Every structure is written in C-alpha cells, then in structure tokens.
Structures
1.
Amino acid sequence: MTTTPRVLVVEDEAPILDGLLALFRAQGWDASGVADGASALESLAASRVDLVVLDLMIPGVPGLEVLRRVRARGDDTPVLVLTAKGAEEDVVAGIELGADDYVTKPFGIRELVARAKGLLRRPRVTSGAPRRIAIAGATIDLDALEVRWETSADSPRSMRLTAREGSLLEYLAARAHRAVTREELLVDVWGYRDGTVRTRTVDVHVQQLRTKLRAVPGGEAWIATVRGRGYRLATGGELDE
C-alpha cells in the first residue's frame, strides 16, 4: 500500500510558502507549513514527516540551528534547504550539519519537485549483520554512522557521519574497483531519477566529507577524483555485511 508523503515547508515569505504548499499538494502530498524556526522544531517534535523543505533565513531560531537540533536528536528526515543566491557559506554549513541537498532562490518548479521526489525515495534498509567498512586501519560503522580509529597512544577516537555521508561511503565501498560517476551517485544515492536535475550537491558533499576525514590518519586520501569519470574509494576498503 502506498502512503501519502508528508512534507513540512519552513518559509517566512508568505507568497513562497503558499506557492510551495500548493505545488506539493498538487503532487498528491500531505504538505503543511510554518513560518519560523521555533514552530518548525515544535512541529517536527510533535509528528514525523518524510521531507523538510527548510529556508535558512527564517525568524526566531535560524534555519541552520533548526537543522543542527534536528540532527542532534537523531532525526534523519531528508532536509532540502533553500538558500539565497551567492550564499555559498550557508550551503557548506548546511551540508556539514546534515542537509541532504540545497536549492538556490529563485528556483524552478520542475527542479524543486524533482529534488523533493528524489529525497522522498528512501534507500532500502536491510536487516542482518552490522554493516562496516574496514579501511586503512579505521572502521566505518554504517549503522551507527561513525568512524572509529586508534591513535598512537592506543586510545580510540571516533567521528560522526551524516546519513548522506554514510550512504555515499557505502556506495563507493561497494564499487571500490572502479570510478563512480556523479550521475550514478545522483540516481542511486540521492534518488534523482529525473535527468533534468542539475545540482552540485555531490561535489559539495564530497568536498565537505574530505575535509571532515582529515581528522582520521590518511583519511584525506580515501576519496579520489578520477578525472573525467567521477570518484573512487582509493584505499581498497571492503564492506562487511
């Protein structure tokens, strides 16, 4: 049985909020909206949704703080952030905090719908043994979304991953024998099956993940760029399932 997707739109500009609600409802989705950060947190605490469309420039609790609090309490609901043109620092900050993708204002209707549909396609969750990647002396726990490694003093260290970073590493590890194109990642990791979608989200996510992995000994070399092809897990990590 197909369930109706539930979408929460967080946008303080009334014409944009009303337009987005009408757009999503026209897709047959259950869409609701709020105009400030405090109301967004209250709504998300009260009921589960399948997608959050979050404007970063909202009154009260800022959009980035809303995202931080949502992820801090373990909520992995897909989040599509709306940013102002030229606000690259907001995009980077949003990705670091666990945003799944971003759209820059002004945006096209077809593009926004395609992004939303992609993020609503959840990856299949399989039961069984824990999923881990052993790579260059470190362990990536895909279930706990955590990287663990030992220091020279034999004291364990760990680092959290976002859900999207975990999916990205898992996909690359399963195909470590070859380069993976951006198009493959958009389709299989982000769920963007619409060929009209044009986004740099893959490159931004990879860039931020590489920055984060610098904390792990040798981690900055884990994801290699293959010119003209895409990305490859460069250290021969193997996925244990």
2.
Amino acid sequence: MRSLQAFEAAARLGSFKAAAAELHVTPTAVSHQIRLLEETCGQRLFQRHPLPLVLTGAGVRLYPALRNGFDALVGAVASVAGSGAPAPLRVTSPNAFASRWLVPRLPAWRERYPDIPLEIIGTDAILDLRSGDADVAIRYARTMPAGFVVQEICRDTFFPVCSPALLARDGRAIERASDLLRFPLIHFDWTSRDAQAPTWRQWLAIAGMVDPSLTAIDMAWALSFREELHAIDAVVAGQGIAICSDVVVSHELKCGTLIKALPLSLPGYGFYLVSMAHHVRQADIEAFAAWMGAAD
C-alpha cells in the first residue's frame, strides 16, 4: 500500500520531492517504495531522466486505475462516516431455525430495537466467531459449546407431525404407531452423525415397544430429503409425516398448519446463543439474547 501511495502521489504531482512532502517522508523513501512497485510490476513506471519526471507506458496504464481506486475508497469511507447508520449485528443460525423460527419473529425485534439492525446468516456450517465471520451464533447441539460465552435459549422435542389435510383425505383417525404406516414417512438427512439423532428409525424402535402391531417395518423411505427445510415443506404440503422439532415448526403447530400425529416423542437438542467474551457489540448481543429468551 505504501508503494501504491508513493506512486500515485509522484505521478499526480510530477515530483518525488513533492510526493515526499505530501506523504511526510523523505524523497529517498518515495524512490525506494516506487522501485519496490517496479520490481513487482517487472518494468519501469517512470522515466527519471531527463527531468521533469515522466510516466512510462506502463505507468500511464497504471495511474488512472489507481487514482480511481483511491477516489472510490475515499468516497466510500466518507459515505459510511457521514451516514451514521449502525452496522448490523451479524447472527449466524442453522437454516431451518432461521427460516421457520427466527425470520417470522423479526418484526417484533425491529419494533423493540429499531436502532439495532440484524444480518441473518442462515447456514448449517459452523462459522468461526474467533475470525469475525459473525458476531453471535445460534448453535444447535446436544451439549453446551465450550470456549465461548453461552446462553441456552431452549431445548426441543421431536414428534411425528403432519398436515390436517393429509388425515382428512385418509378419513381415519391415528390411534397408535402402526397407523402411521398408512402414510409416506418423510425423512431428512442428519449431518451430525449422532447415533441417537431423533430419526424415524429411533422413533419406530421405541414405538414398537408400546404397539405390538408395529412389526416388519419397511425402512425404505417414501420421501427423503437432504435439507430439513425441504422435508418440512413436504409435510406442510400434505405429502406425508415427518419427525420434526417442536421448536422449528412451532409457528405451524400454533396456527394449525401442522398437528402432532401422536404424543410419543424423542428428546432433541439445545439451541445456544454463542459469542466471544468481551465482544465490542456485547450490549447488543445481550439485548438479542434477552429478546430470544422471551420470544413467544
């Protein structure tokens, strides 16, 4: 950057001495920085003799692009400094939780905290808070993440859920676990590789202990999805029954778009709000944590 600054000033002012005065360094320092840039470019940028200083063909090509770049940087900094707009609090969250739980509740956040904008980063990848990829993370895990400031927001439970329209088309009530086998079972991939993940296989194994008629289970899935969100969309569309988190589909359960097919459940995981200690946005993070804990 120092070499680029030295070149831009010398080209604009036509003098190493004038560039040095503007940059508050010696003419020798300017000459040294320009020689470093010429070594990087592999060719001369100035014809130094005879005076006055003249740009070579390579220097003529480089100077306008560099001048425009510096002008753009100055304009961008001035725009940000003059706007007074606060930077958004960057929140990373698992995709399904962000889409089904967090996004529908954002109007309530904006109403309560209009001066703290949010940037929601929906991803199932674990972003590195230490490197600044996000300010705060919502992590979904069986146990509390270590090495951070952590607050447990809630824990979920998994039930078989379906659309009321699916049951209406069938015309028969679901009274026991074996009744579910009349319908397509919707499966989605668990990337955590947790052997105890709340899947259909786990649920049916437990259900078989209380429903003797649940035998010879066909484990070939009628519908299988890589993404949890796609599985939920299929359930809402009445395409089958899935084992879903009561937290992730809480809105659908509350408004009746989905219903619990049976009360037999599997334990889920915890939703944890995770941040770095002594974060520069600590007050905003604490406000977000309090809001999440109190959100309906």
